[in-house]
């Protein structure tokens, strides 16, 4: 069994304000082999890393990202809601993280947040940023909007894409192949032994989210998934090491 990858969810969201540079740095410190992020687009067409379509929950401001300029967003404090120790953290632009990761052997999982808000040109802009920073081969792009995955493949057939989904899919590897995707990204409680076995037979890796409890981490790692996405990269690493030693 190949040792699975531990991917930090929004960085290390249990230890630092999610989707900030502090969180990404913490994830690497804790041993993550990958980082998962969310990308939205500002009013002036810039790519920012934020899970929600608004800034209300994770900053001291309010409003929809699509209605705010980058300058307005970067004036906000994205850290103190989590802890005073992180006061002054900002919502980063995608390019800031790409520059930070460039030259590192780290998988970057970018979720395109274009399900609630349909950002025109989001796929093109993300692909262009990856091209400029030479990060295409270190990145997998995922989305709950599977039309977006089709668009990505249309623009760049070589880019890796992952199918995000919640409910159980019948033979999900067949669906993924049909839309040209390279991986399955199911929620963790829908990861069953027969799904993992079928995916392995059809050479379709599974990266599941968001797995935080040790018992769940160990169970899912033991099934043979390619990786897990977790708020606790340190727990993920401990669980992966434990299961891998048993092999």
UniProtKB/TrEMBL annotation:
Name of the molecule in the record: GP-PDE domain-containing protein
Residue runs in coiled coils: none
UniProt GO MF annotations: phosphoric diester hydrolase activity
Pfam families from the UniProt entry: GDPD
InterPro entries attached to this UniProt entry: GP_PDE_dom (IPR030395), PLC-like_Pdiesterase_TIM-brl (IPR017946)
One Gene Ontology biological process: lipid metabolic process
Domain GP-PDE: 4-240
